[in-house]
């Protein structure tokens, strides 16, 4: 994924207890991730657990979420003012187990884009708690309504995963994909699998649907408890 250079905006966000404190603009480089945990280096067996669990710190219960909003060019200033008026109050409210680590506009790269980095203390349950409470927050719901008028597009609720296969491995991949579907259907997941015939060939897509992010985490981890899942992941990695 391409990296993006981001410039921080909004004076009302300087009270976050993070290394991103600054009295002026801060420039950092972030990868385009929707959610992530901190990483560390150690020797691991990649076949016996979800990769997110293998790579993440077990003692770290925080969940991070990056939001990307593509804003109409003529609305960027108004969008920044709206965020500065509402988001710091959520950050400072002890009833929400969340912190606004930082908020930026894209400086180099994709223009007219806003980026927000949130930390949820307690993982997916904390994220779900915050989302449910915000639905009852009249100020936030009004903020969402006004914000929606300024955005070009909004993401959907499905997870689409895409992979580029080596030429000649499509049939072999299909055989392992059939085994994978049989295993994952034990959790009654909604799923779709596709491959390209026009455009970029040897490209496959998996479309997954989950009730919420906590359900996604539990379902993906549960797959590793099913016999044969580790073997399927190991061999499809070679494609």
TrEMBL record:
<dbReference type="InterPro" id="IPR051557">
    <property type="entry name" value="NipSnap_domain"/>
</dbReference>
<feature type="domain" description="NIPSNAP">
    <location>
        <begin position="158"/>
        <end position="237"/>
    </location>
</feature>
<protein>
    <submittedName>
        <fullName>NipSnap-like protein 2</fullName>
    </submittedName>
</protein>
<dbReference type="InterPro" id="IPR012577">
    <property type="entry name" value="NIPSNAP"/>
</dbReference>
<dbReference type="InterPro" id="IPR011008">
    <property type="entry name" value="Dimeric_a/b-barrel"/>
</dbReference>
<dbReference type="GO" id="GO:0005739">
    <property type="term" value="C:mitochondrion"/>
</dbReference>
<dbReference type="Pfam" id="PF07978">
    <property type="entry name" value="NIPSNAP"/>
</dbReference>
<dbReference type="GO" id="GO:0000423">
    <property type="term" value="P:mitophagy"/>
</dbReference>
<comment type="similarity">
    <text>Belongs to the NipSnap family.</text>
</comment>
């Amino acid at each position: 994924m391409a990296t993006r250079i981001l410039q921080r905006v909004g004076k009302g966000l300087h009270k976050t207890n993070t290394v991103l404190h600054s009295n002026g603009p801060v420039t950092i480089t972030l990868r385009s991730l929707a959610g992530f945990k901190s990483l560390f280096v150690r020797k691991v067996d990649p076949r016996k657990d979800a990769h997110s669990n293998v790579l993440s710190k077990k003692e770290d219960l925080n969940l991070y979420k990056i939001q990307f909003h593509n804003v109409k060019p003529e609305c960027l200033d108004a969008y920044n003012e709206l965020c500065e008026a509402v988001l710091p109050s959520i950050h400072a409210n002890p009833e929400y187990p969340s912190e606004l680590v930082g908020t930026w506009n894209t400086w180099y790269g994709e223009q007219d884009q806003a980026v927000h980095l949130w930390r949820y203390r307690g993982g997916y349950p904390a994220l779900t708690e915050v989302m449910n409470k915000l639905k009852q927050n009249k100020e936030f719901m009004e903020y969402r309504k006004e914000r929606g008028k300024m955005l070009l597009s909004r993401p959907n609720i499905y997870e689409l995963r895409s992979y580029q296969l080596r030429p000649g491995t499509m049939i072999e991949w299909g055989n392992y994909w059939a085994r994978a579907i049989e295993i994952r259907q034990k959790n009654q997941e909604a799923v779709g699998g596709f491959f390209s015939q026009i455009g970029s060939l040897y490209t496959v897509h998996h479309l997954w649907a989950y009730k919420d992010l906590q359900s996604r985490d539990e379902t993906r981890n549960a797959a590793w408890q099913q016999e044969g899942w580790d073997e399927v992941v190991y061999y499809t990695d070679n494609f």
